[in-house]
Amino acid sequence: MTAAMRSATENLVEISGVEFGYGSRKLLKGLSLAIPRGKLVAILGASGSGKSTLLRLIGGQAKPDRGTVKVAGQVVHELDTHALYALRRKMGMMFQAGGLFTDISVFENIAFPMREHTELPESVLRRIVLMKLHAVGLRGTQGLAPSELSGGMARRVALARAIAMDPMLAMYDEPFGGLDPISINVIANLIRQLNDSLGATSIVVSYDVSEAVKLVDYVYVIAGGVVAGEGTPEEMLGSKDPYVYQFMHAQPDGPIPFLMSSPNCSGVLATISALCASNLEFTSGEDRIFASAPLSFSMTARGVPAGAMAPTQDVVSNPG
């Protein structure tokens, strides 16, 4: 067996040197990672780090500027339309916030991928839908509309739809976002149980470190467009790498910035820096801030730092 054949057997997904950007903004900068078959892997990172984009590349919704994305030994972005659709039929996707069709019932939401990609008789399709609902603890809800579901129930319906066709690869995009602690625990347990019972390979994209590390076999942390760290949950929690440590332990200070640099906001940030360095009071409209270093600036209702729009007109001496 050649090295390439052995790699394809061991890893279901292989991403090598991938670069990708939106316009002039480079999001992924030579990222490489591998997802072993049968494993549940978390891809963690701050908001905007490219986690969801990575899922789009794996599913063939986007093409990398450089590098390769392989699934089951096939280079995804080199497949023709027919081959790509055939590969996608072996994938299941749970979208952010569920992504249910609001105008059709729970039953039809779960049945949708099977109606699109198979010619199963209605009796068989019905049994599968009811079985998937039972698997996620929602027996008897098939006639409900998505608007009649709680947030946790809607996420479980989305999970049932993702596994409706017993995919070889299941992808979960922020499955815990916006849920209460009990619902998060239920969803996490279901993802683990379903991965193991189906013998599937699963990718969980999340920024929720505490839940992800209890669930998965392996962790990747993305920062700066590359993999900043990888390992078992225990290894990652014990890592001394500055990027990994800051993210895994939710530290406010470190190499991952809270504010993103942008040409559009550089002037505003410069104004803030100048004001923070001085002993000034400034106002803007009804907003009023006393600046006495160290200063924490506030935001107006429009999200613009108070006083940043016209500092030369409103700055007065600090009376205090």
Can you walk through the features of this model?
The protein is of the alpha/beta class. The chain contains twelve helices and 13 strands. Among the domains are: 3-90 and 167-248, Rossmann fold, CATH 3.40.50.300; 266-317, no CATH class. 36% of the residues lie in helices and 24% in strands. The chain has a six-stranded mixed sheet, with helices on both faces. Strand 11 and strand 12 form a beta hairpin. It is globular, with a radius of gyration of 24 Å.
Short description:
This protein has 12 helices and 13 strands.
- Strand segment count: 13
The number of helical runs is: 12
Stated plainly, the CATH topology of the domain at 3-90 and 167-248 is called Rossmann fold
- The order of strands across the largest sheet is 6-7-8-3-9-10
Radius of gyration: 24 Å
Low-confidence stretches: 279-320
What labels describe this entry?
Rossmann fold; 6-stranded mixed beta sheet; 24% strand; 4-stranded antiparallel beta sheet; alpha/beta; 320 residues; 36% helix; 12 helices
